[in-house]
Design a protein that fits this description.
InterPro entries: Metallo-B-lactamas (IPR001279), NDM-1-like (IPR050855), RibonucZ/Hydroxyglut_hydro (IPR036866). Residues 23-219 form the Metallo-beta-lactamase domain. This is Glyoxylase-like metal-dependent hydrolase (Beta-lactamase superfamily II). It comes from Kribbella italica. By secondary structure, this protein is an alpha/beta fold. It has a single domain, classed as Metallo-beta-lactamase, Chain A (4-Layer Sandwich). It has helices at residues 44-57, 72-75, 92-100, 106-115, 120-129, 201-208, and strands at residues 4-7, 10-13, 26-29, 35-38, 62-66, 85-89, 143-145, 148-150, 156-159, 169-173, 178-182, 214-217, 223-224. The strands form 2 sheets. It has a 7-stranded mixed sheet, with no helix packed on it. A 6-stranded mixed sheet has the order 8-9-10-11-12-13, with no helix packed on it. Strand 3 (26-29) and strand 4 form a beta hairpin. Helix 4 packs antiparallel against helix 5. The longest helix is centred in the N-terminal third of the chain and has 14 residues, at 44-57. The chain is globular, with a radius of gyration of 17 Å.
């Protein structure tokens, strides 16, 4: 895979089309003051793929890493990004610290699925993404915010919450008129989902009413709206 330019200074490393892989896309807002990375990749190996793609396109070095939410496929690549400022919603810190305290290994994944078979799709994907758990380190954010935060490059971060993840945020690049939404309007993860849980259409409509030219979520192609 290679980076795809959405428009202006916004680029995307595409999501993995294989649903069993659970490989979220990674966004980059390229700026000469330092690029902003939107999500970390689902593993150190995934992060290294994105790094090679950034170098191949000659984009500026990444200085900020933004988590759209704490789920593994958006955060497990963070340790591979080295000395960057990790930014997330305030509620992400405790959630990630709890995840970091778990004894991640292939045996642990198997044991957890035996206890709760609904974890199977997610935990099988984690096993595929991380062949060697000795290199996994879950990184808690350096900088957090409650409602909004504007980064030095002008990228605007805003808390939206929702049923998919309590810490969900969106990122807007006003210069390119692009909103990166992560998974914010998705239903809860499979192991937490009930028959009543569906796409949060009310949230999706609210975001669309802002009228950005492009919307980018983490498991679909970028959508041009006008």
């Amino acid at each position: 895979m290679k980076l795809e330019q959405v428009v202006g200074r916004v680029w995307v490393y595409p999501h993995d089309p294989d649903p069993e892989a659970i490989g979220a896309s990674v966004g980059i807002v390229a700026d000469e003051r330092g690029s902003v990375l939107i999500d970390a990749g689902n593993s150190p190996a995934h992060a290294r793929e994105v790094q090679r793609a950034i170098v191949a396109e000659g984009l500026p070095e990444v200085r900020w890493l933004v988590y759209t939410h704490h789920h593994w496929d958006h955060t497990w690549g963070a340790a591979a990004w080295g000395d960057v400022e990790v930014v997330a919603h305030t509620s992400a810190t405790a959630l990630l610290a709890e995840e970091a305290a778990r004894p991640w290994s292939h045996q642990y994944l198997r044991d957890q699925v035996l206890e709760n078979p609904k974890l199977g799709p997610s935990f099988r994907a984690r096993a595929l993404a991380v062949p060697d758990f000795s290199e996994l380190r879950i990184v808690v954010p350096d900088t957090t915010f409650d409602d909004t935060l504007t980064l030095p490059t002008g990228v605007q971060l805003r808390y939206v919450g929702g049923r998919h993840a309590v810490d969900s945020i969106v990122a807007v690049d006003p210069e390119s008129d692009v909103m990166l939404v992560g998974d914010c309007y998705y239903p809860p993860p499979f192991h937490l989902r009930t028959e009543e849980d569906t796409t949060d259409f009310a949230m999706a409509r609210k975001l669309l009413r802002e009228g950005h030219t492009y919307y980018v979520d983490s498991h679909s192609e970028p959508r041009k709206m006008r």
